[in-house]
Design a protein that fits this description.
The protein has one helix at residues 101-104; strands at 2-12, 16-26, 28-29, 34-36, 59-64, 70-74, 82-89, 92-93, 97-98, 109-116. By secondary structure, the chain is mainly β. A hairpin with a 7-residue loop joins β6 (70-74) and β7 (82-89).
């Protein structure tokens, strides 16, 4: 029941910013998806211009997941209220319980989010 996110790429333009985040999963997966707080995203590479999420991303998607699984990002009403929902097969949600090793041990799970810049 813990997702940590780290900023690994940043692509700012005049009107929007696209961020690529690496996600790590630990603990237990709850039915309906695990909580993802975008405002708690770390910036371990100290990427310049990486400001906190003040606005909810308008465009988002999953870039990379381990084989045998699919993931869905569920937008929240605020940047601190998003969810990640896992599936083992078409329309079969991962059952509640400890994350499988294929997810908790994966080092390359990534999502991409884009939002308007703070003007």
């Amino acid at each position: 029941m813990a997702i940590t996110s780290s900023l690994i790429a940043l692509d700012p333009t005049r009107r929007s910013v696209r961020r690529t985040l690496a996600l790590s999963f630990s603990g237990n997966y709850p039915t309906g998806g695990d909580a993802l707080d975008l405002t708690a995203t770390a910036n371990p590479n100290n990427l310049e211009g990486a400001h906190a999420f003040a606005l909810n991303p308008a465009v988002y998607g999953v870039r990379n997941v381990p084989g045998g699984y699919t993931a869905e990002i569920i937008a929240g009403a605020a940047p601190n209220a998003w969810r990640v929902k896992w599936y083992t097969a078409a329309n079969t949600e991962l059952p509640a319980g400890a994350y499988p090793a294929g997810i908790s041990g994966a080092a390359d799970i990534q999502i991409e989010v884009s939002s308007r810049t703070n003007l």
